[in-house]
Amino acid sequence: MFFPEGQVRVFLYGEPTSMRLSFDGLYAIVKHHMGLDPLSGHLFAFVNRRATQIRVLYFDRTGLCVWAKRLEQGRLISNWANVSTHEMDWTGLKLLLEGIEPKRVRLRYKKSHSHSANTSIHAVQTI
Length: 127
Hints:
two-stranded antiparallel sheet, disordered C terminus, 2 helices, IS66 family insertion sequence element accessory protein TnpB, Transposase_IS66_Orf2
């Protein structure tokens, strides 16, 4: 799937979502809770309570598609109190999927070297 980046609209659902939901469950949230049209071609992102998994629902003119990502370490969102349902741009979604929280301006995980016993490097990303 290829999107012209300037034309894609992305909506992040501002409440924790069960990752047991699939096409129909996510479709219902978009339609009834977000008040948007799931068949519009926009991307709709949902994050679980622990913020370790994300699902993205979209319609590609032939059917509904769901992307899923599970982090092995770290979190997608640091604090649910600061999250609300809102529109974000394509770049914001890419940063979220890469583990970068734009408001905190750093990675949400730390990398460590296996060859040095007590040394760990905290990765910092500036935007």
